[in-house]
Design a protein that fits this description.
Alpha-Beta Plaits; 5 strands; five-stranded antiparallel β-sheet
Amino acid sequence: MTFTHLDDAGHARMVDVTAKQPTVRSATADGFVRCSPPVIAALRDGGIPKGDVLAVARLAGIQAAKRTPELIPLAHVIGLHGASVDLEIVDDGIEVSATVRTADRTGVEMEALTAVAVAALAIVDMVKGLDKSTSIHNIRLTKKTGGKSGDWVRQR
């Protein structure tokens, strides 16, 4: 078996994508932040003492997508051409979704996953003073387009 991220001596390496042609690619990931009823009520009425939770989480997720190669050791530095983080307050928490786009030599799955993870962490940070039991769940890739492996959608 050949491993793409190991050299001939078995050492970790970044895959060389120099020869690949840039193509349009996107990835979407989602996750969930479970919150208690009092936190949901405070979110809905704007009563979180630290401020606008959704605005902070949205910006944290976008910033995280751009900094993914600093966090994930073998992730490539690529130009991101679009990143969005969508948040929806539901009865038992906040649904988090991120879509990242590029026209580059490698995909943006890790950037989408990182955006969701950090947006979720920002939510926890913003509400932890109200409820320390707030928790993060089910961060996962839900869709990707482009690249050699083509399009993929998670079957629910």
